[in-house]
Amino acid sequence: MLKAVNDARVVHLLFWVAGLASVLLVVQMGHPYDETEHAHVAWLMGKLGQRPLDDFFQHHMPLLWDILKVYFLLGFDGPEVLYFGRLLVVLSMLVVGLGWVQLARLLTSSRIEADYAAALGIGSFALLFLMMPDIIVIRPETLAAASWVLSCLCWRYAFARSPDQDKFCLASGAFYCASLFFSPRMLFLIGWLGFLSGWRPSLKQVVFWVLGAAAFLLAYLSVCGCSLKYLYFAPYYSSVLQKVGGWDTASLLPWCPEPRPLLILGVVWVVLFRISSAQGRKTSWVHLGYLGLTCVAGWSSGYPHLYLQNFFPSYLSLSSSCLFLATQIRWEAFPSPRRLVQWGLVGVCAWLVYSTRALVDSDLTIFHIVELRRHVLGYLAPSDTVMMCYQMHPICARDASYYGPWLGDSQNRMGEAVATVQQRFALPRFSYLEDLKSARPRLVDTDLDLALHENEVPGLRGYLCENYDTLLWRRRGIPLLLLRRETTATPTH
């Protein structure tokens, strides 16, 4: 009877974690640059029918846009696409959670072991999310996580003596290929297929996995709006971009304002290690080493620009390790660790409630982001263009430049990066200043000086003073918004 009570309690707590995390995922402010960027590209593709590189400049993999643009293909419009994007984020995370629950059941022989293993995996990921909420927003890695977990689940099913082994291998390969079309960084997690198969897949299973990946590749290329040239350009340019531009290299690790989750997970790992079997302890060290490899891969592939998303595979790997290691423990024999897990989930729930309340009270929610973009969009006619950073961009507006919004983390970083590949890919000329003067966009923001070489900045500011008026004031770090001054044409004689 005690086991049944404990089992039900941890399952109920998992439901609470999922529900509260979903609320926070929906209402959080998110990343003001990245989410707007992907929503804007989806608008260009879904509403205007444009294609990356052919009609506008981009360098991310396209699968996220192909899903986001469904919002516009259904006839909707406006910056409210961010709500649709957040719905996709929640669905992706629910798939991850349910996938881990099912994976835990495949790896264990009893329900209570599966429940506590799933609790460790999901709870660990929730803690990492609370440490850095920006890690789970409308970004390619977020949706890639669902594809990757489904790939792992199908791969494990293929080793469960199922009569449909070949189909599961095909599905695993297809899901893994899909995760790469969201984000090539998911390649860092290929080792997890080895962990789940005991590093003993048959040649037939590998062949079917490859066939599944190839099938997705061919099917996607036949229906997507991106060219093969772009699919080669995107990862190539991204690798070039990582090494271009000034950056603060004093910190060798990504920015971490909340270290407590890492300390908590360190304690969890020690407890799991102590109550595990000898084989489980050996596996613990292997997993810890692989986690280190994913961190090194994220660090080396991104340095000196250590963006948080470079380490998203490490988040998934760490949480999966907690789940996998927890499946090696006979939880019936350890009532105290069971209670520790339960109280840990209670603490996660309380933390989620506190974080959500703090965001709502401080007006730092997605609703305020959408309201700002809707306000900016109100100054534009359908034919107007803008030249604005993504922090202020109204999403559903045309850009005055082929190169769209710039990279605001370093002076002229976009220009430097484009210059290295311009001839190789026959890109259009690059000059935001010339595009500004020729297109005369309706709205401009004062962060535009970051897009230009420092020698061009005085000329830019002089042009803006002559042709634009201040529309919005600076608030919470938001740049000034400038409205084009309408001039009366001079009569000719």
Structural notes for this entry:
The structure is a single chain. This protein has 493 residues and is mainly α. The protein contains 19 helices and 5 strands. Helix 1 packs antiparallel against helix 5, helix 5 (81-107) packs parallel to helix 7 (140-158) and helix 6 runs parallel beside helix 15. The longest helix is centred in the N-terminal third of the chain and has 27 residues, at 81-107. It is globular and about 80 Å long.
Q: How does the major sheet shape up?
A: 5 strands, mixed
Series of H and E elements = HHHHHHHHHHHHHHHHEEHHEHEE
Indicate the percent of residues in helices.
55-70%
Q: What's the pLDDT, averaged over the residues?
A: 89
Q: Low-confidence spans: pLDDT under 50, at least 5 residues?
A: 488-493
| Strand proportion | under 5%
Oligomer: single chain
Structural class: mainly alpha
Number of strands: 5
User: Which outline best applies?
Assistant: globular
State the distance separating the first and last CA atoms.
99 Å
Strand order of the largest sheet: 2-1-3-5-4
Q: Whole-number radius of gyration?
A: 25 Å
Q: How many separate helices? A: 19
